[in-house]
Design brief:
With about 100 residues, this protein is mainly alpha-helical. It has one domain. It has a two-stranded antiparallel sheet with strand order 1-2.
């Protein structure tokens, strides 16, 4: 603890604290982004495609009406390719941040 009181020790301590804070912030944002890739109607290949979505209906005026973007997925749920790729990329970023953290410990 005495090393922290010296100029170089204090600088190392602050640098480590800042790195930890930045890494924690990035991990929280990645967790939010990953949650956005979870199964929901808006991430389905069939969502709001003409007649492809089983929950899509026609209004009395003849317009199509479908489930909410954040609705629960149905049995025909099929994740869109770009969502699956995005989730895989986000998980790789999380793993890289964790490895970086282990390397600094």
């Amino acid at each position: 603890m005495a090393d922290i009181m010296t100029g170089a020790g204090f600088t190392r301590f602050v640098d480590a604290l800042c790195d930890h804070s930045i890494r924690t912030s990035k991990l929280r944002q990645l967790a939010k982004d990953i949650a956005g890739c979870e199964p929901r109607c808006g991430n389905c290949y069939h969502w709001m495609k003409s007649g492809s979505c089983p929950r899509e209906t026609r209004t009395p005026q003849g317009r199509r009406s479908g489930p909410n973007n954040h609705g629960y997925p149905c049995s025909k749920f099929e994740i869109e390719d770009h969502i699956a790729e995005r989730k895989a990329d986000l998980l790789r970023q999380v793993e890289a941040l964790r490895k970086e953290a282990e390397g600094r410990s």
